[in-house]
What we know:
The protein is mainly alpha-helical. 68% of the residues lie in helices and 10% in strands. It contains nine helices and three strands; from the N terminus they run αααβααββαααα. The termini are far apart.
Amino acid sequence: MLSESETAFLKAPIGYQLKIVNLQYRAMVDALLKETDITMVQFSVLIYLISQGRSATQKELCEALHVKHPTMNGLLARMEEKALITQSFNPDNRRQRMISVTDKARTILERHKEMHDRADRMLYHDFSEEEKQIFAGLLYKIHQNLTESGKLAGAEMPPLPCSNMISPEEQNA
């Protein structure tokens, strides 16, 4: 028998359900990352930079991670204070700042790979392989529906970030 709060969650609009699950997931990952003083968003920046295999502009990071420019400014400043990234001007365009990962961040990321895998194991606890594939397919279908609906409504919809965020090894798996 489900509790009152479980029943309320199941009857809530899908947008609310997705928001709650996202908040729970972020809190779980932040707790796992806490020992190294890196947040999930900072982790995402590092993963993106590593997956690109090169420095990236602040604009690229904003677009890939769906973060507004002022928010990214603060995020990068905190990451630079922690010696996770370096920022330099693009020699070809002095208006662009190039963001690079430091050796310290690379070392931390190696340790965090296990934490990321642990978070996924926690997220998919008691899921069969078939359920994982069905779930991923349903999330993708929701994404497609929202993208199409957003276009029809004139909204600027963020693109799928997955190809930019997945390492070549994971893409080939």
